[in-house]
Amino acid sequence: MRLPWSNGSLRLEAWGGWKVEPEAQAFRLATVGERANLSFNVTAPAKPTMTGITARTIVNGVRINTQRVEINYPHIPPLLLQPPARLKAVVLDLAIRGREVGYLPGAGDNVAQALQEMGYKVTQLSGADLTPEKLRRFDAVVIGVRAFNVRTDLAEGLPALFSYVENGGNVIAQYNRPNDLKTNKLAPFDLTLSGQRVTNENAPMAVLAPDHPALNVPNKITPADFEGWVQERGIYYPSQWDERFIPLLASGDPGEEPLKGGLLVAKHGRGYFVYTSLVWFRQLPAGVPGAYRLFANLVSLGK
What we know:
Blueprint: E1 7-13, E2 19-21, E3 25-28, E4 41-43, E5 49-59, E6 62-64, E7 69-71, E8 79-81, E9 86-91, E10 100-104, H1 111-118, E11 121-124, H2 132-135, E12 140-143, H3 147-150, H4 158-166, E13 170-174, E14 191-193, E15 206-207, E16 238-241, E17 245-247, E18 249-250, E19 263-268, E20 271-276, H5 280-283, H6 289-299
């Protein structure tokens, strides 16, 4: 028996010079629970641009353009969301330096995947990997969000990590909460965290050190790179830091004093140590072009 909803067609729609082939594909689902995998070729324009790609299906004359998202946790009732079946596609002007990045996961984020999309080879690291022999092959080491809150295996390896920086390495540490830190030694130099944040994603960004390589190499950062950010600018900003840290940016919510601790860079020996409370874990999965360009600069420091 053929079910009435088993036959249909699917198309992807894009705008702004993006091309999708084929225009549509037919499918037939004969049994309950059956799935079909349909492939399309999407060609982007040559110039930097963004678009939304929407999936639309027609089943027995009924048009559908929603996806299915289930939220099911023991502490809340099951929820079913049906947002538009749409994704964001981006073409950006991006340059990188270096090739291999080590990633120390924290509480969970998709920054490692974003680094792979930039063109880096990314290796997941454990605390046991923080040795001079294992670190020396990396162009940079990135520490995931809240790693110093949730991991107990990092403190012992920090001397080797800081030595890696001193010998020419590059470390980018993402934000941590000031409470429940597993170690107070977050960097080679003193650094004190706070609960300060910038919640307005459109808050102006002032450049404090326009000639710093992190804002110029290999991508020249301009005011346009701080447009289109999502949800917020940064969280748990440092409130005090050693004078060897250079604050690169300042931003604040309306009516509040700008905070300068969102992006701190220190030269340590021949390398760089970066502490940043900007919310890369939101901006990179959201495909914010300027976030990709600036984060690529941080990973490229010293190269």
